[in-house]
Amino acid sequence: MIASSLLCQRDSSDYFSQLQTKPLTPPFPKKRMTLMTEDEPQSPRIPSPADLAQIGRGVLMGGADVIPGVSGGTVALILGIYERLIAAISHLDPTFLSLVAQRKISDASQRIDLRFLVPLGVGILVGIVALGSVMHTLLEDYRQYTMAAFFGMIGASCYLVAKLVGRWRSQEIGLLIAGVAFAVWLVSQPVFADPPDALWYIFLCGAVAICAMILPGISGAFILMILGKYYEITGIIKEVLKLKISLESMTLVVTFACGCLVGLISFAKFLRWLLAKYASQTMAVLCGFMIGSLCKIWPFQIDTTPEIEEFKHKVFKIIALSEISIDGQFAITIGVAIVAAIAVLLLDRLGTPAESLHAVTAEDEADEQT
Question: Is 234 helix (H, G, I), strand (E, B) or coil?
């Protein structure tokens, strides 16, 4: 009896010791826990609120890029993403290609900040498509007033770019004059009155115009106007919205997009280097180039080819000041230009381009030291 009692006590003590060391296993299956511990991070939702915010910023940038005289880079400054955008683009380099070749996709995507670039790029595309067809229609139906708005915006942008020059010394003044002279010579070339339709030229337009987007104050759409392809590119956007898609238009879009991609990859680091080493000189040249190019968008022009129906092949001639009629249309044109210039100046007050440029140059110098 005593032996059996001791045996029961030993068995019960063993049972309770097991309860203390092993978790209970209930007969029913456990429910899966949905709460995440602090050590186990929750995977980000796609699209996240941050992604949607980047799409919205991209829409604003894309809409600005379509308007000659308004820079997508300036909008990026105002939205506070300029430095991050330049850093991400400049990392499309051999190091990135090496990571891709090694199939280190995660490291490669982190290097170029892919989670930032993709939603921003989607937003930019939406903004371009949404506003591109509108600008095409305005040029067709209200050319003089539209050109007046462009003239006012680009004139104000010249002032803003001039503000980015740290000190106006003899060197900067000389570069400004050189930029003006080169631009006047360039836009007066007959080839830009009726530019070629070759794919190599479309590729070149994309490569050059996209570089203007990187610099605040410089409008990529304005570069397209100088090169004579703005109307054609916006016309393709208008056709796409009407679902009038042809093989020719798609070929032009793909060629233009490839030019933009090559331009970004090729010139992003070069532009950062220019801003780091020769910021004032670079801005002086760009300011001069913009001033000299204003004659391209002088709002008072006449159509010298009324027999040509296709708008992109029309040739317009500038009307001299002495030949301009002072009437109600003249007053409206001047008023539109003034309002457009004021709008750009007010937009600039929301951002700090000079401080952002200094931040980009400082970051570039830090990268060189490391």
Answer: helix
Q: What are phi and psi of 195, to 5 degrees?
A: -65, 155
Residues in the chain, total: 370
Where would I find the beta strands (DSSP E) of the chain?
Answer: 301-303, 316-318
What's the distance, CA 179 to chain centroid?
Answer: 24
Which tokens hold the place of 74?
A: 């300036």
| Tokens representing residue 344 in the block | 């750009």
Residue 275 makes CB contacts below 8 A (sequence gap 6+) with 282, 357, 360, 361, 364
Q: Strand, coil or helix: what is 200?
A: helix
What does the pLDDT look like over 141-164, one tens digit per residue? 888 898 898 888 888 888 888 888
Classify the phi-psi angles of 317: left when phi > 0, otherwise alpha if psi is within -120 to 50, otherwise beta.
Answer: beta
pLDDT of residue 86: 80
44 vs 135: CA distance, rounded Å: 38
The candidate with the shortest Cα–Cα distance to 283, out of 199, 166, 129, 147, is 166
29, 88, 11, 20: which is closest to 54 by C-alpha? 88
pTM: 0.66
Q: Assess contact for 184 and 122: CB atoms under 8 A.
A: no
Per-domain residue ranges of the chain: 49-365
Distance CA 235, CA 291 (A): 27
Tens of pLDDT, residue by residue over 89-105, are 878 778 888 888 888 88
CA distance 207 to 210: 6
**pLDDT at site 352:** 52
| Euclidean distance between CA atoms 289 and 298, whole angstroms | 15
Report whether 79 contacts 234 (CB < 8 A): no
Q: How many CB atoms lie within 10 A of CB 127?
A: 24
* pLDDT tens per residue, range 253-269: 889 989 888 888 777 67
CA angle, corner 163, sides to 161 and 167, nearest 5?
A: 115
Look up residue 71 and give its DSSP letter: -
Half-sphere exposure (Cβ direction) of 6: Cα atoms closer than 13 Å: 3
